[in-house]
Amino acid sequence: MNRKLFLLIFFMFLCHFCRADLVQEGKSLGIRPWEITVLNALSIEVMSSSGAGSTLGGGTMESLTTFGSSTAISSMSSLAVDSVRSEFYLKQALFKCSKTEYRAALDDFRWSLIYYNRNADAHFYIGVALLELGDLTTATDHFTKALELEPGMTRAFLFRGLAFSLMGNYAPAIDSYTSCLKLDDNSTIARFNRGIAFRAIAETDEALADYSMILNKRDLISALINRGNLFSCMGELQSALEDYDKAAEQAEREAVVLHNRALTRIEAGNNDGAVEDAEILLQCGQLQDEALLLKGIALMRSGKSAAASEAFTGYLERNPGKVYILYLRASCRFDQRLYKDALSDLDMVLAREPLYASALSLRGLTWKALGNFSAAVSDFSAEISLNPEFTNSHIHKAEALAGSGKYDEAAFECGAALELTGQNPVISLQKGLYHHMGGRHEDAIIDFSSVIEIQPDCARAYYLRGNSLFNLGRYEEALSDYSRAIELDSLMRYAYCARAIVYEKLNNFSSAQEDWTTFGQVRKK
Q1: How does DSSP classify residue 319?
Q2: Fewer Cβ atoms within 10 Å of its own Cβ: the N or the C terminal residue of the chain?
Q3: Given its phi and psi angles, is residue 410 left (phi above 0), alpha (psi -120 to 50 degrees) or beta?
């Protein structure tokens, strides 16, 4: 193959690679069908090269067949004949590859090697075909053999690195790319792929160095996107957004750029910007599903539940029954107090995935909002069986039990929550309240006292403990707690009311009258 044609082929491959790599993550480099670009170009040489330019002296498959016949080679030496036959089968294999007939091409490749097993090109191209067929291990063997025969074959290093990367063997992939770069320091593809491999093994500094070196020479969109992805994974959101913005300037309305930037904007808290990117994607008709999902999540995080619900509905029209999206729409509908609609979504979610803990929790809250406390308790109990160490599950169940008048059980659930959290004044306060409502005033006093011990300026704890003391007839102690509650919060109007009643019980009517007056004044405020 002449040098000019080879450079053309390689340039075509480079352009295709840079486009196709944009959407890949982690172990999948995703540059298919890279080999078709190479092999299609090679088939042009087989089908259209002139007699003077062709290796075999013919420009069509017919002339190749004639040249490979016994008549044409009868005057040649055995070694020369084998060399020509090897080249003929190689060209025939490449022609089949150009039509994506890779398995059929393998037989021709093997015949080429049978006639001349030191043909480095044959080993290289059979490696390419095997790569397409997914036989990565054998492909690397052939690339290695090609390099043994021709140590300066940069493309063999490049493709062997690709095969290793696709296998998840990043260390030897990096070695192959590095060898390629030693031979050709300007190989953008090798440096780009090595950056991806470095990123896959969390060698972030090396990956950034490779991307940055590419960008120092030219603003390659795919390098900007990959470096942006890497910055995003590292939590450097501002740097990621800068790279996405640069990529967007070079490729207006480029879907992958907009998608990745929207995702990073959501993570950075710029939900309005994420919605803008999603809207552009929807307008240009690219990545529609992803755009609707990103738009919905950004709107949801902005507190715009109605608009978010609409976006999720659009997604579900295109992808019916997607469990996670149904759950997100149910959350939006719950926030809008559309409880029956939320319940409908959650029923579909749990019909498909009965062990979806978050959906059980949300349905429990929905049942509670609708006043169906027994159904709520059932869902929260199911959630607890899946996540027994999730404190909120016990709190939600306690609230539902209290709604059913089962105060002892509600207090028990608060106790279970306290076992998980340790000292917690909010939960202890609620537990004390349930004990009080269930008539267990001694237990309630213990709970309120534990709150005061942790948080001595909690006016509500003094007020509630005063109520329990009052119910036990311990009026002097109740009076002390009500007075302390008023000292801490002079606008706690019910403390004045409660203290007035205690004063009356103690026959201190003048003080009672003062509190009744203050109660009326605070009420007007």
Answers
A1: S
A2: C
A3: alpha
